[in-house]
């Protein structure tokens, strides 16, 4: 019985790690430059810098309600982005980028500085 419990825990922990990705700086910049994300090239350095500071380039980042690569505050924004916060902690960038861009665009239209939506960048 003990072996079964330990084996199950090991398998579950390995499955959790399968959804984790820690980006390199250049790797993230190149991914964000992909046309499918629609990130302006002039903004890529800022997005990469934010990801370094807010999550350590770790897609599984989840610290006190701050989720994913871009440190998205889940209490408000997960609902606004129409996703569950756990979607921000897997290795698929599409939800992270879409939600971060929604935050940026909303804040940019209201305050003319979209990156100020993240307190860490002001």
Task: Describe what this molecule looks like in 3D.
By secondary structure, the protein is mainly alpha-helical. The chain has a single domain (about 20-120), classed as Orthogonal Bundle (Lysozyme). It has helices at about 1-15, 25-30, 45-55, 75-80, 95-110, and strands at about 60-65, 65, 70-75. It has a three-stranded antiparallel sheet with strand order 1-2-3. It is globular. It is an enzyme of class 3 (hydrolase).
Feature tags:
5 helices, lysozyme, globular, glycosidase, 122 residues, bacteriolytic enzyme, disulfide bond, single chain, Lysozyme
Gist?
The chain has helices spanning 2-17, 25-32, 44-55, 74-80, 93-111; strands at 62-63, 66-67, 72-73. The protein has 122 residues and is mostly helical. The protein has one domain: Orthogonal Bundle (Lysozyme).
Summarize the SSE layout with pairings.
Blueprint lengths: L1 H16 L7 H8 L11 H12 L6 E2 L2 E2 L4 E2 H7 L12 H19 L11
Antiparallel strand pairs: 1-2, 2-3
Helix pairs in contact: 2-3
CATH topology: Lysozyme
Total helical elements? 5
CATH class: Mainly Alpha
N/C terminus separation: 54 Å
Low-confidence stretches: 4-18
What fraction of residues sit in β-strands?
Answer: under 5%
The tally of structural domains comes to: 1
Going across the major beta sheet, what is the strand order? 1-2-3
Total beta strand runs? 3
**Could you give a short account of the major beta sheet?**
3 strands, antiparallel
Q: Can you give the mean pLDDT?
A: 83
Helix content: 40-55%
